[in-house]
Amino acid sequence: MRKLYILTLLISSFCTAQNLNFTIDTATDNGTTITETIVSGPDTYVLTVDHSGNEELDNLGGGDLVFFLSAIDPLTPHRLSITKNGMPTNFNLNSIDYDTLGAGTISVTNQDDEVISSPTAYPLGAGSLTITNAANALSITQIKINPTDTDDLNDFGFHNINVEILDTLSTEDVSLEQSIDVFPNPSDGKITIKNSGIALEKVVVTDLNGRTITTQNLEGITTDKDLDFSSVLSSGLYLITISSERNSITKKLTIK
């Protein structure tokens, strides 16, 4: 029987949820990224759309804009993130609208590559991307819009990214999330914690019922760490929590 193991990101600061709809109608393209800004009361929210290729804005008519990929790296996903007053935030994704010049298949994942929308074939026309795993759209920090074919991001334009803003992430929260990764995943039980300079104190692996399977002291290590759980983890899905002195991050770990 397969089991589920997960690494969990804990964020300590909270704010009142704010629903926003980034229409893309007022977005700007600086040649590297596309951004749209919404000012609500004292707060400024910025959606950033990033891609290694040539992103462009297209007018569908009447000032209704969408973003799409015109060339280069057609199989690389669009990456969307949001800041509040210059600080990264986490958010719930409610919906994304599309317009397409031809049929194609699109999927959506979050920052941990967990599936929000499984690969879905969409016909010529317009509509909303189908969310198939709503839980993976909650409390996320990034949206990845993934093509299946080389023509998909050329044919598909996206707009009306509707989100609910949750927390503003502290500098340490952002640093921990961006500095720590676990690979390979899926794994045979032997993993590497990739670390870009954060002093890590402990790693804990639990099952889905919250039972601790194994704990290891990392003793403040600031470099990559190899761990072998093959003798204690059977095939399945687990939660692995990696802690620094003040914060922790949790990710899903699949054992083959």
Question: Could you explain how this protein is built, in words?
Answer:
This protein has 256 residues and is mostly beta strands. It has 2 domains: 13-168, Jelly Rolls; 171-255, Immunoglobulin-like (Sandwich). Helices cover 5% and strands 57% of the residues. The longest helix is centred in the last third of the chain and has 9 residues, at 171-179.
Largest sheet: 11 strands, antiparallel
Number of helices: 2
Fraction of helical residues: under 10%
Compute the separation of the termini in Å: 11 Å
CATH topology of the largest domain: Jelly Rolls
Rg, nearest Å: 20 Å
What is the number of E strands? 21
- The CATH class designation of the largest domain is Mainly Beta
Give me the secondary-structure category.
mainly beta
Low-confidence runs (pLDDT<50, min 5 residues)? 1-15
- The proportion of strand residues reads over 45%
List the helices and strands in order.
EEEEEEEEEEEEEHEHEEEEEEE
Quick tags:
2 domains; Immunoglobulin-like; single chain; Jelly Rolls; 256 residues; disordered N terminus; 2 helices; mainly beta
